[in-house]
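Researcher: Final request for today, and then I'll write up notes for the group meeting. The sequence and the SMILES for magnesium ion follow.
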Amino acid sequence: MKSEELKRSIELEIQKYEQKLNVTSIGYVLQSGDGIAIVYGLSGAMSGELIKFSKENVYGMALNLGEESLGVILFGKIEELKEGDEAYGTGELFTVGCSDELLGKVVSPLGESLDGKEIVVDKKMQIEREAPRMFDRDRVKIPLQTGIKAIDGLIPIGKGQRELIIGDRHTGKSSVAIDTIINQRDKNVISVYVAIGQKQANIARMVQTLKENEAMSNTIIVTSPASDPASLQFIAPYAGCAIAEYFMMKGQDVLIIYDDLSKHSIAYREISLLLRRPPGREAFPGDIFYIHAKLLERAAMLKKGGSLTALPIVETLAGDVSSYIPTNIISITDGQIYLESQLFNSSIRPAINAGLSVSRVGGDAQNAVMKKIAGSLKIALAQYREIASFSQLSSDLDPVTKAQLERGKKIVEILKQERVSPVSIPSQIILFYAVSNSFLDNIAIEDLKIFENRVIELIDGEGDLKDKLVTSNKLTDELITEIEEFIKMVIKDVQG
Ligand SMILES: Nc1ncnc2c1ncn2[C@@H]1O[C@H](COP(=O)(O)OP(=O)(O)OP(=O)(O)O)[C@@H](O)[C@H]1O
Ligand SMILES: [Mg+2]
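Model: Predicted protein-magnesium ion complex:
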């Protein structure tokens, strides 16, 4: 047999096998409502199996495997499903259709484009999937640049990392995520933004921002708005992750944002209560930790190329990170970016509390020059926080303390950043070096912004220095001289 014929016959055999699998068992609906069904007689079903019904417009996913009955979450025209309808096990896991056509689109968790256009599917990806094995993973070693000074400098993120963004309502959590997506527009990183239980208007505004900043063509938005049933909101992050994995498997670097897992937990709690699972702490089902751990475990840096970096978002109440869902997710991720209302309200934005934020693996990915310079910045900032807390009590300070205090204020000022204004790594390095090495002592706080803008403009004319700042594996004396010359030139320009 020729190899071509052999291939064809194997394909036919596989097809036959798949057809056989199409309906593996038949049961019937005992009860249907609120987006879930209890089905009798599909005892062989797998968790996550695609379930079909005699009503063709309805389908579901097996979630709760009981001895006698099966709990199924429903999709499609769920109101059509009635007691007594037939239910079919398919032997297949629930999938979402993926292809490059998803890029630039806003889609539902079922992979349907909200603009109504059909997406031609290249590959169906299981929404629930085992995370890559240890053997296939590489360590986190390449930076994922957010363009946000406070993050790239102090809490750097590496490709393949899971970094939590956590804070109260309205502290700028989503903005950090969106700015990070925008910064990927020229970095060959695909972004998947999963919006769970958000308002439609929010999504529309975000799409607008991404389009205006030329970042939408490399982005996919998976949304299940607040008006969706809990079943759809529940599968949204899995569907988003499956789409992200489709691109990762093709060797692409992918960034995924889950905005947010607090709302996801609430959707899962609703489903679980409807399925009459025993509630645990704060009425969440006992496996809530497990399902989030399993989801975030899918972030990875693959040895063969391709990565998935996950930024889950969690909302806290009155800054309480010790409640159930926040503590769970803090313990699953590789660090957290902690945003604070108090900072936000005193116009320190992004409102990142650098003292409480950490990135456990991102430091390994940071480039050598940035690592060195940001290291001194971190120390100066920590000293400032310490002095600031007791200097409020004493009136006359010694000159050294006073100078430290002044410098600290300038560091805080330099770390402020408007939305949608990414700063490149070379510019960040220059700014950090200037502020932590007394170059800015004679520039008033109000004028720091002018200095910053000039750095960003003028660094573009210094291609050689720009390159060295990112590629050098050591901060040499020569490089320091070059950095200082450039800073002096900018200061002269600003003052002259
Ligand atoms: N760096 C920033 N500078 C100025 N304003 C900002 C900054 N970041 C966020 N904002 C503003 O703060 C508001 C809240 O931001 P955002 O929606 O990102 O917060 P959130 O924590 O995601 O809120 P929610 O809890 O509603 O999801 C928005 O109006 C946004 O424009
Ligand atoms: Mg938000």
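Model: The CA atoms of residues 196 and 224 lie 5 Å apart. The domain at 98-366 is CATH 3.40.50.300 (Rossmann fold).
Researcher: Thanks, that's everything.
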